């Protein structure tokens, strides 16, 4: 029985500070859970000169030295971003040090290779904090749903976008909502990764592997962010009984597994519709368990530290007991990723059209040509420039048909512009 | 590496059949997850003569023989109820056989003793299915929140009551809603354990141990069921912004840990308010992770089998690898259970009173004497017999004061009856 487990911490930003503080302040709780004393042995910070309240023994500005230090039993990587984080994780694993990380970017792009390296070295690589912050997700998906074939997964996994969309639902413009998110600390100064769904795409990749055994990189996903969304569409959606969310969707179909991130209308009565503000939620349908949802704070120092420390306790417990790391689970056959053109969804269109006879006949003819059924229509009396606004809600159709229909609708003589096309999810 | 793990299944009711079917039909998925072949070796049924479609090798009517069979590596107990289930579990553990069970009754009353026996024998006793059916709960609470002090836990963990209360919210009487629940298969022919909150109390006991380290038996909980509830109260509650749920509540206060099951008004905007029908949900607030919620199907053969099989896979994997069972985690100091009289809640009262001057002054005097603040009042014009209905919503006060106030309100000369007193929860 190891008397102590010595931790090397890489990165002391918001999450790193929360982790360091917890390791010091709740040493007893954590050590009791781990069955061994957890010692914050070394930490690497960006700027040594900056004063900090943390009493870490050996602070350094050299993360590579911490990752490979002889007196470190476990490495926590909270540097973030692809490099040097990936190299740091790999070098710790190479030296047979288990690694706990919150780094979705590295895992999305290099997860399988790093997992393979960890397995080869007989150590663990854990990343509960990489998706959904403080919400228990990775272990529940891996272990608790092991008996299921996961049929569908839909997730709100970007708090920034959800905060922005929640404000837009009250009529605020995207730019204003984003500025508020930045003021409130929910969005970074450069929010592109969030707004363009890069972050959500990375996280979906990780979930896809766990829940569907599909190995893919973010480059293989269809990914569309929230830029260009108009509060008018959220208002029309509401009228039709839907709320707009940035959804990460993975779904098993006979033809393959869908994997996509995009804004989507969700029925008001679905639990995901009520996940507001900076909250995250993952809704999973298993073929045995049925629908299950996990929700909570998807970001923030303490919430993310909670997940990091759960992994640390798990690894430390194993180190203390000297238990070997079990071999990785065998996956089933690799599923085919469905190309976006084959994905079937319902769609919402908003068009600006001339207010003249025959317009509606033209529109419906285009839809009929592509065998797209029409479920609901809203048409308002024209505004000042003689343009009328038409909102269409279709039945399910393949993406290819919907995209072609969009182009053809835009080219109709009576169409001034296709102002929006937004997918509609009608989950279980 | 063990080539196979032989399973002995006790009890082939709804859940047992789903488990047996899955063990046979999804043998490959389960065996891949477990890293070893899972074989349903023996099963004990109540009535051997009854025809069944399951091809189990050796069926017997003697569960004790299965629990102690030499050719069984792992016992699944799905007999239910206290005895003989407890004895069967104990005898399997005594022979160093790991046990997976869904038996909340046995765990609530004998969990610590059985866990101690399992630890002494170096085998696992797992019970993910005992609370919340197919919702991953036990492992997330034990492992994923390990770094947290759990501050509050509120749960909807009886699907029957939630189904009944959901129907009552639309104006249906309790008796009618209960009959519907029975027709729909959500309530048993004898629904007393559900309606009287015995079932929810058992489950709360299990959650209390995991989340608060409080060892208690159901006898130590305050437990009140849904009998006597009137749809009028649900309607008034709605008017005040609340939904009525049967809640299991555990809360850390400076004076100790509260543990109680009773009907409670929950604010409409709280996620628990939207958990309808036969769904279950557990809402936990940790001091690091913040609020987290898990929801899904709390009952049903397949959903419960999903949880049972997750445990089976976990245990079989360990058996296959020959890994030792880690010693149980040390708990922190045992918290004090707060007596119900000291618990502070808000309260809803509905009174039938004479419609005459001074009535309201009498009522408010009683509340003021007990230092109970008044938050909202609804008074309707009197009905045919000259009786007026008064609804009061108080601020937080100790249960002892609220109970005494109730008695004194009932004795006022102008009071015809105190028709309802229902606690109000205002969670994070």
Could you describe the largest sheet of chain A, including whether it forms a barrel? Answer: 11 strands, mixed
Largest interface: A-B, 57 and 58 residues
* Alpha-carbon Rg of chain A, integer: 24 Å
CATH class of the largest domain in chain A: Alpha Beta
Overall structural class of chain A, as computed from helix and strand content, comes to alpha/beta
Q: Could you say how many structural domains of chain A there are in total?
A: 3
Terminal CA distance of chain A reads: 48 Å
Task: Characterize the overall form of chain A.
Answer: elongated
Ranges of chain A with pLDDT <50 over ≥5 residues? none
Give the overall average pLDDT of chain A: 94
Q: In oligomeric terms, what are we looking at?
A: homodimer
Helix content of chain A: 25-40%
> Can you tell me the CATH superfamily of the largest domain in chain A?
Dihydrodipicolinate Reductase, domain 2
Please name the CATH architecture of the largest domain in chain A. 2-Layer Sandwich
As a percent range, the share of strand residues of chain A is 25-35%
What is the number of helices of chain A? 14
**How many beta-strand runs of chain A?**
17
């Amino acid at each position: 029985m190891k008397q102590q487990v010595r931790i090397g911490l890489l990165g002391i930003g918001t999450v790193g500070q929360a982790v360091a503080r917890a390791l010091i302040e709740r040493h007893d709780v954590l050590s009791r859970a781990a069955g061994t004393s957890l010692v914050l042995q070394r930490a690497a910070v960006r700027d040594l000169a900056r004063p900090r309240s943390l009493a870490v023994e050996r602070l350094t500005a050299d993360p590579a030295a911490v990752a490979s230090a002889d007196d470190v039993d476990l490495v926590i990587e909270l540097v973030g971003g692809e490099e040097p984080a990936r190299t740091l994780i790999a070098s710790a694993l190479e030296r047979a040090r288990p690694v706990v990380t919150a780094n979705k970017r590295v895992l999305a792009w290099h997860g399988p290779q790093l997992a393979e390296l960890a397995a080869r070295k007989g150590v663990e690589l854990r990343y509960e904090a990489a998706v959904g912050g403080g919400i228990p997700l990775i272990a529940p998906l891996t272990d608790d749903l092991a008996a299921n074939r996961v049929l569908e997964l839909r997730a709100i996994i970007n708090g920034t976008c959800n905060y922005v969309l929640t404000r837009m639902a009250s009529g605020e413009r995207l730019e204003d909502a984003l500025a508020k998110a930045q003021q409130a600390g929910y969005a970074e100064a450069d929010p592109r990764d969030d707004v363009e769904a890069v972050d959500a795409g990375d996280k979906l990749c990780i979930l896809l592997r766990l829940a569907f055994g599909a190995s893919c990189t973010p480059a293989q996903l269809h990914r569309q962010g929230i830029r260009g969304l108009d509060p008018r569409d959220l208002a029309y959606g509401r009228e039709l009984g839907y709320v707009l969310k940035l959804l990460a969707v993975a779904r098993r179909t006979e033809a393959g597994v869908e994997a996509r991130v995009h804004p989507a209308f969700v029925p008001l009565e679905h639990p995901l519709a009520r996940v507001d503000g900076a909250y995250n939620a993952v809704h999973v349908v298993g073929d045995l368990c049925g629908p299950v949802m996990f929700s909570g704070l998807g970001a923030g120092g303490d919430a993310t530290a909670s997940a990091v420390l759960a992994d640390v306790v798990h690894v430390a417990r194993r180190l203390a007991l000297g238990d070997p790391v079990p071999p990785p689970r065998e996956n089933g056959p690799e599923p085919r990723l469905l190309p976006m053109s084959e994905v079937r969804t319902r769609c919402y269109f908003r068009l600006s059209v001339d207010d003249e006879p025959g317009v509606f006949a033209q529109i419906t003819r285009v839809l009929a040509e592509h065998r797209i059924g029409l479920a609901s229509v809203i048409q308002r009396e024209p505004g000042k420039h003689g343009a009328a606004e038409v909102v269409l809600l279709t039945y399910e159709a393949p993406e290819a048909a919907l995209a072609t229909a969009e182009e053809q609708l835009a080219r109709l003589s009576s169409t001034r512009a296709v102002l929006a096309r937004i997918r509609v999810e009608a989950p279980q």
